[in-house]
Write a structure and sequence with these properties.
- About 15% of the residues lie in helices and about 25% in strands.
- By secondary structure, the chain is of the alpha+beta class.
- Strands 3-5-6-10-11 form a 5-stranded antiparallel β-sheet. A two-stranded antiparallel ribbon has the order 1-2.
- A hairpin with a 2-residue loop joins strand 1 (about 25) and strand 2 (about 30).
- The protein is rod-shaped.
Length: about 260
């Protein structure tokens, strides 16, 4: 009977005990430790923590550097000069009365080099037609009466004009002192200018009607024409002083 009572008490105790409680029961003189462990179903509170997203590597926005390929130099394309450049006298003609310029601060050296290199084969044939002219004439003339002398004083020189007026009255750029294709291109000519043009010839008797006269000769030069986009070179004719002569007029003897 006592045993049943003890079991009943244990059942009641278990029913009223919380989860995880421990019950000790003593029976008689001996103490029997009986531990009952009961677990209620545990419901975890809802979690509001979202799991971390899976790692994704950051996309790189670095653009690859463009590849640079060597581009060939653009083909030479002559640019027409302003129209007034071929009509108005050049700046080098302002302080001179001559029809040519031996110095020119506006000489188109760079454009000439580029055009000659681009058209070299055709240009060389044109240039050889006039550049090989032999102008090695005597400049050291006699100066004493024992030998022979000129009747009119003059100034003689070899020149390389950079610009000059052609036979049509237009100023042209002449190819001179241009370094292109491993050579220096020049066009040299001999000129002789009268120092007393229009005056009586010295050393001639006054009974003669005389006058110092400037004589000219025609020269051909290779010129640069910026307006011609196909081949900007041509051979043109120029009239330059060549000698100084003494002109003797009519003479009659009166008895």
């Amino acid at each position: 009977m006592a045993m049943r009572l003890l079991v009943s008490l244990v059942i009641v105790a278990l029913a009223s005990a919380d989860v995880g409680s421990h019950v000790s029961i003593s029976h008689g003189g001996a103490k029997h430790a009986v531990t009952y462990s009961a677990h209620r179903p545990h419901h975890a509170p809802p979690s509001y923590h979202h799991p971390a997203p899976a790692y994704q590597p950051r996309q790189s926005y670095h653009k690859p550097a463009p590849a640079y390929h060597h581009q060939p130099a653009p083909a030479y394309k002559p640019t027409p000069a302003p129209y007034k450049a071929s009509v108005e006298p050049p700046a080098c003609s302002v302080n001179t009365t001559k029809a040519w310029c031996l110095e020119d601060n506006e000489y188109p050296t760079y454009e000439l080099k580029a055009a000659i290199e681009y058209h070299y084969t055709k240009f060389r044939n044109l240039y050889a037609d006039v550049a090989d002219l032999n102008t090695e004439l005597s400049v050291e003339r006699p100066t004493t009466l024992e030998e022979e002398t000129y009747l009119c004083p003059s100034d003689t020189a070899y020149v390389r004009p950079l610009r000059a007026i052609n036979t049509e009255g237009k100023w042209r750029v002449i190819i001179n002192n241009i370094e292109a294709h491993y050579e220096t291109l020049t066009q040299t000519t001999r000129i002789e200018e009268c120092l007393t043009s229009g005056e009586a010839c010295p050393l001639v008797p006054a009974c003669y009607e005389t006058k110092c006269l400037q004589k000219s000769i025609y020269h051909r030069f290779v010129v640069y024409d910026a307006y011609d986009q196909y081949f900007p070179f041509a051979v043109e004719t120029f009239q330059l002083p060549a000698s100084c002569a003494c002109l003797v007029g009519a003479y009659t003897i009166d008895h």
